[in-house]
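Protein modeling request. Please complete all fields; requests missing the sequence field cannot be processed.
Requester role: graduate student
Desired output: 3D structure, token encoding
Chains: 1
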Amino acid sequence: MKKLFVFLLGLLYASHNFAQVKGRVLEIGQKQDTTTVPGVIVLWNNSSVNTTTDENGRFSIPVIDSINELHIRAIGYDPQVLTVKDTLKFITVILKNGINLKEVEVVYETTGTELSYMNPIKVETLGERSLMKAACCNLSESFETNPSVDVNFADAVTGTKQIQMLGLSGQYAQITKENMPYMRGLANGYGLSFIPGTWIQSIQLSKGAGSVINGYESFTGQINTELQNPETSDRLNFNTYVNQNGRNEYNLNAKHRFNEKFSVGLLTHMSFNPMKEDLNKDGFMDIPTGRQYNIMNKYSYNTGKGFEAQFGGGYLTDSRTGGQFLNLMDSTMKSNSHNSGGIMEDTAMLYKIGIENKKWELYSKTGYVFRKKPGTSMGLQLSYLNHDQNNTYGLNHYTGLQKTFYANYIFQGIIKTTDNTYKLGASYMDDNVVESYKLFKYNRDEKVGGAFAEFAHNSGTKFNMVAGLRADYHNYYGLFFTPRLHLRYALNESKTVFRLSGGRALKTANIFAENTALMASSRDWVVMPGDMSMPYGLKPETGWNYGLNFTQKMKLNYKDAYVTLDLYRTDFTQQVVVDVDYNTQQVLFYNLNGPSFSNTAQLEFGWEVRKRLNVKTAYRYVDTKVNYKTGLLQKALVSTHRAFINVSYETKDKHWLFDATLQYNGKKRLPQTSSNPDNYQRQSYSPDFYNVLAQITYLAKIKKSELNIYVGVENALDYKQPNPIVASDAPFSKYFDASMVWGPIYGRMLYVGLRFKIK
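Delivered output (759 residues):
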């Protein structure tokens, strides 16, 4: 049985913080309002295992099997002792006149986004309150009210949205789902729309070099999405949404706890987009019609004695139809008949867009905590993905099939005390991708095995360090190393925090999946191989990221405020250049010859102006340049300047929530079109523009249930990019290009929704 038990552990994973007692320490003030208490010492009786609460009053401490007395010590309060009977329950400690209440329901104000002050890696956590600020129908729309991530339309015909981080496209950020790889391969094009907003419990966002534990692919940062957990989620959560374009969605999450050890959760999603609209009268649907069915089943098992398991699977089918339709063409052809400069075509041939995605996946995360060895645990992640994609762009057809197996083993321990911890592990990935586009046919099977080590040191609350190193062997690229380092130094009781980070990254360029927007054009694809033994004949992308962060916590007019400054640079040593400037009728893919870098500086300020009235402002400067065949140029479709202000207010009775966001988008360089006929040329730069989003939410609580009704608007100023499609009247000519999108396509969008929860 012992051998069988060890074997099963080798097939399962648990994250390093399994079997941890978690809680929060708060104080009830004279006005009966609650405030968090940071810097509180939490320790097990008669042991050296201890921790301190962070800036949000939260703590997490490893379980010790033989000890159940937890001591709470804070300056100005009487020492408290808790008897922990259930290590799985979240503990809320309230300090008031020396009285310690073990189980209370606490309601406290939050802006929805929490900044880490104690972690060497600056992490922004977007919680449920943050996701409620906008419609957040899926992951791609969850960053609309966050200044660190840009959200834009990828093209003018598929309705797909893409993100940018630190001045680079989303594929350079490592996007994970529950700390397992997610946005890889075929998912790069449409994967952000495959995670419904109501499935999301929280999003952790960190810039720059990340941890080596999760892999070697993070250039600009890590975005991890935690889905609703069967152990902690609501028993029932129903959401429905409809917008001005007729898009309607239905989400139902449910969970059931069979006993204290075993629980199950079900996440479901259906969405439909039935309306064919052409508001700009170019003959093309502004947003494609389509439907998505998405389901995930999650299971959680916890013995309470050191062994915990999570496993499940999901299935998705997503279809979209767009392009030209006869009922959209009548008014367009009438207006074009008076345009002598246009290139007229046979109206019998229409340019159609068809996007089909089918995906299923299985995963497991389980592990074991050595209860007699504090801070020591081990585990393994496993996942398998099958993704089938079949797309049509006019006369061009793209097919892709991806099969990916992933495993990641972690062992964590301490050196004498919890101030010195280490993680050792190994990972393996088998990524098989078969693709076909036009005359191109590629079949690559990446097999990567690696090992990693990470050491963390804490010197009280002043200094923290995390140093990591990976060594991976790739069947195409051979042996390569990934070092990462994070340093943190704090002053004034962690109110003034400095952070430094640096690290290397490597990834395979998925030239088709990462550039599906360019398929919606008549450009000829030209791949210029440098080494035919590599995927697509192109070398891997490698680079370094360096970062500096300063965060200052303060009081303004007796209210909490903060200011943070981020400075980051990404330097590519190798890159697959996507060149749309050399020839307007071509897109070239070749290995970098010369410099390629991105410099970003972001200043952010947040302040609780009055009780429950919060303001967040930010400004970002981006300088991203690539050495193309025509020289060193600013990367196209990236704003050099961007500003942001978000205002949120909650009424005293907590029934009404108001939120508004103003975004300023500076001008963007556009790919050159000077060789086109005059009426198919575009300016060298786009104009700058503003975007306004707003939402009002009514919240009612009835015993253990909660009802939310919300109405909102996107692009309230009704700003639209004029003529987003080049040669829309001649889609089969060599000038057609729907990929040069720099602004909103649809215009003002009103929406309404309803959320119902049973706790």
